[in-house]
Amino acid sequence: MTDQYDELGKRFFRVTSVEKTEPPTGVTEGEWYQYTIGHGESSIHGKRSGSLQSVTRHAEEYAENLNQRTLLGHSAYAARRLQK
Fold first, then answer.
1. Could you count the other beta carbons within 10 Å of the beta carbon of residue 35?
2. What is the dihedral of CA 3, 74, 15, 57, to 10 degrees?
3. Is 0.85 surpassed by the pTM of this model?
4. In this predicted model, what pLDDT tens digit does every residue of 4-42 receive, in sequence order?
């Protein structure tokens, strides 16, 4: 996997794979895909039902959200703070 960096030398989160997978236990309907978002040596795995296109779009939006949080100086791994 080739890492991508921003202008400050920080690594970007990016979708590294989207693959068809078995549905979760107890779920009998729908097409399920597992996606992986990479960030250096770290990775985030998720499952989602839908078409390959919709799951890929979801994973890309998720990665972009993580990148935006990082650019704002927030930890991408920390829980979001509630606005008061």
1. 22
2. -150
3. no
4. 555 444 568 999 999 999 999 999 899 999 999 998 888
